[in-house]
Amino acid sequence: MNTITTNDQCGLDLCKRKEVVIIGNGPSAIILSYILSGHIPYWNGCPVSNDYLNIKLEQYVKDTSLLEQDLEFLSDGLEGRSRNPVSLLIDNLLHPDADLGAHLQSKIKWRHDPSLSIDHICIGRGGVGGVWNKTTSKQLQTISMADWMELPNYPMSTFRQQRRAARCNSLTNNQETTTTTTTTNNENQFGRATYDEVHSYYIHYVKRNRLTNYFRNGYEITSIERVCIDAPYYDDVNEEIRTPQPLWEIRGYNEQDKTPFVLHAKYVVLATGTPQKITRPLGIIGESASQSFTYTNLHDIEDLINKKRLTNNSKPLLVVGCGLTAVDILLLCQQYLIPVLHVFRRAIDDHELVLNQLPANIFPEYERIRELIRQSTSTTTSMSSSVSSSSSSQWSYQCYPQSEIISITEDGTVHIRNLRTHITTDCDISFVAKLTGADVTIPFLSSSNTKKYNGLQINPYTYECIDYENVYALGPLAGDKLVRFLQGGALACAASLFKKHRQASSNNNNNNNNRRLSFSVTSRIRVAS
Ligand SMILES: Cc1cc2nc3c(=O)[nH]c(=O)nc-3n(C[C@H](O)[C@H](O)[C@H](O)COP(=O)(O)OP(=O)(O)OC[C@H]3O[C@@H](n4cnc5c(N)ncnc54)[C@H](O)[C@@H]3O)c2cc1C
Questions:
Q1: Is 0.90 topped by the overall pTM?
Q2: Which residues have C-beta within 8 Å of that of residue 338, sequence separation ≥ 6?
Q3: Is 271 near ligand 1, meaning CB less than 6 Å away?
Q4: Ligand 1 centre distance from Cα of residue 103 (Å)
Q5: Cα–Cα distance, 47 to 394 (Å, whole number)
Q6: Whole-number Å distance between alpha carbons of 304 and 188
Q7: Average pLDDT rounded to a whole number, residues 350-368
Q8: 230-267 confidence digits (pLDDT tens)
Q9: CA pseudo-torsion sign 136, 137, 140, 141
Q10: How many Cα atoms are found within 13 Å in the side-chain-facing hemisphere of 489?
Q11: Could you tell me which CATH number the domain at 278-438 has?
Q12: For the chain, where do the domains classified as CATH 3.50.50.60 start and end?
């Protein structure tokens, strides 16, 4: 039996018992915290374009909170870009006809009733904002429209107006001319947002909605475990000794000073983001020899650039893969004129390439990269070599589509083979950006089911994990990868938590009236791990 850290030893306010502990501090956690702090969603009575849904809203929802609805019935028959029915339902209400290009008003209104709030805490690494805390480029833009990145009840357009007004004010206060403030392209009402703008919006959202006290940032959670810490008690009515419900024990430490903490909660919500840990190996010769100069995300490459370890005079950066993060890295390198060798397996016209799926009028910068890749391929053909350079600017970009890496040596030489022609090319490189996907690992929970389904099995109407009682999963872990769909998951989870909380409170009231005897020695039984 493990020893328990008492509240006194820990000395942190984290050493408490909480009703709900949310692991994560990104958009999923923020939305759930907003609802659990007593913000209740209602249909605003305005019709949606889906007739079947309209009828159900008219007949069954009306003025009752969306948290009290039969979400399975309401979401039945809806189709869209999420596999989760409640995400589709709420997306239909929040962003009506969004996939047809519409930017219509949300059909959800919110009422604040603090008396309904549930005691909870969100714990996460770094600062608030989740992945957006690390993704802060002022140049790179979201794939989604800005309003799709919104959190409940605070339009991005309002945030943008307020930010512009604040900037104008500060300029006026500094007695500078306001004519210098221009509305940039990406600040169009519905235009896409920069990463930095999304990050600022999330930070501002937490402050504006007085959620700061619910967040403990800069903490790493290391384990969750089911334990019994409360004493058994005598149930007068049924005349039997009863064991109280087990709790979840959450352990972790402060990222800065490494102080450990332990916390108990009835419910745990995993809002930990994309469940990836280990980038898939390339399976090449020299894989481990090149580890010291291989990176697997945008943030690390930005860091190399900021620290001037990667400059326009460096040897080329080898970018492997052609997904969105790879393309974002190309955009970054283009901006800083950092030479790039770009290797990927697919053919340039392959429909699976994400670049071939984005409309050019909405994503002009991605279109420019696509054009560059196309140009490079036609040059390649005429040069009968696999190397070509960007002629459109000073930027040195060499593209190797339908190619694979054979090996990377310790001194930074890469051997590339064209999969069609089998011609191999050797090049010197500075660093490697390996963006070829990651193997999924589910945090904290080990179960054969998690491996089998490549993710957590959840109840799609409550987001509760099938194999773990009182554990919920939100966001990418539950299959909602876009911010636009996160509100549905948070709402379904909150509805379930409110229901269980209400039920437990009424049971407690009954039990308190009946309870006569409690044992003096606290027993501690581990029932699962
Ligand atoms: C570069 C990039 C661009 C994107 N562009 C778009 C876009 O255009 N449109 C869109 O809709 N979506 C986009 N996404 C996806 C979107 O960001 C995610 O869907 C969204 O952030 C998920 O929110 P979340 O709160 O569930 O998870 P996250 O934002 O990932 O937050 C999870 C948090 O939990 C923390 N955490 C995890 N494990 C632990 C632990 N053990 N202890 C403590 N903390 C922990 C993480 O550190 C993180 O802070 C993009 C993602 C990236 C990386």
A1: no
A2: 305, 310, 311, 312, 314, 317, 332, 395
A3: yes
A4: 24
A5: 54
A6: 32
A7: 85
A8: 888 888 888 888 888 899 999 999 999 999 999 999 99
A9: positive
A10: 33
A11: 3.50.50.60
A12: 278-438
